[in-house]
Amino acid sequence: MSEVRDDQVGGEDPKNSESIDEILAGAADAAATGTSDSDGFAKGSPKLEAEIAELKDKNLRLYAEFDNFRRRTAKESFEMMVTANAKLIEKLTDVLDNFNRAFDPQNKASAEDFEKGMKLIFGRFKDILDGEGLEEIDPSGTEFDPNLHEALLQQTSDTVPENHVIQTVSKGYKLKSKILKHAKVIVSKGKEE
């Protein structure tokens, strides 16, 4: 059997100058007068009141600090999104300027020059989007993947194996690893039986 030391039972704790007898006497007085709470602590005890006030103050400060953090984070996130969009929009204004020049009524370009200009504008537009991480999803001939493709309909096919894409109706797009738009496809049912 283990021994019980004096400091474990009734020894005086230097941090707590109140003795066990005083605590018991206070609890007995509170019980007799009905001024204790559900935990048996004496209501109105200055020490307890001070501790409660201190904990309430800490709780209020933590709540305010968290609320400020939440607001600051939301504001920073919004500002970062606006800044990122502004950089992309700035790049796209070059494409807009090129379209304005192409459709300017004073521009007397031939049909051939106009077509070349449109191809150059398209190339510039595609370069900007590729530079931002946009990738096309063109699944023609590949196996149907519901994570990347949206099946519009199924058709029988003698040349394309079952559950493979016969035709891409509309290309899909992804930005880095996030799918922005699923490719719309026609899927093979296999050979007609």
Structure description:
It is a single chain. The protein is an alpha+beta fold and 193 residues long. It has two domains: 18-132, Hemagglutinin Ectodomain, Chain B (Alpha-Beta Complex), CATH 3.90.20; 135-193, Nucleotide Exchange Factor Grpe, Chain A, domain 2 (Roll), CATH 2.30.22.10. The chain has helices spanning 6-9, 20-33, 46-102, 111-131; strands at 134-137, 149-156, 165-170, 172-175, 178-181, 183-190. Helix 3 runs antiparallel to helix 4 (111-131).
Per-chain topology:
Blueprint: H1 6-9, H2 20-33, H3 46-102, H4 111-131, E1 134-137, E2 149-156, E3 165-170, E4 172-175, E5 178-181, E6 183-190
Parallel strand pairs: 2-6
Antiparallel strand pairs: 1-4, 3-6, 4-5
Short description:
By secondary structure, the protein is an alpha+beta fold. The chain has four helices and six strands, in the order H-H-H-H-E-E-E-E-E-E.
CATH architectural designation of the largest domain: Alpha-Beta Complex
- Write down the overall geometry: elongated
Number of helices: 4
Main β sheet profile: 3 strands, antiparallel
Count up the domains. 2
Task: List how many beta strands DSSP finds.
Answer: 6
Give the CATH level 1 class of the largest domain. Answer: Alpha Beta
- Sheet-strand content, in percent, reads 15-25%
Question: What is the straight-line distance between the termini?
Answer: 87 Å
The overall pLDDT, averaged over residues, is 81
Secondary-structure content class: alpha+beta
Strand order of the largest sheet: 1-4-5
The residue fraction in helices comes out at 40-55%
**What is the CA-based Rg, rounded?**
38 Å
| Uncertain parts | 7-16
For this structure, the CATH topology of the largest domain is Hemagglutinin Ectodomain, Chain B
Order of helices and strands: HHHHEEEEEE
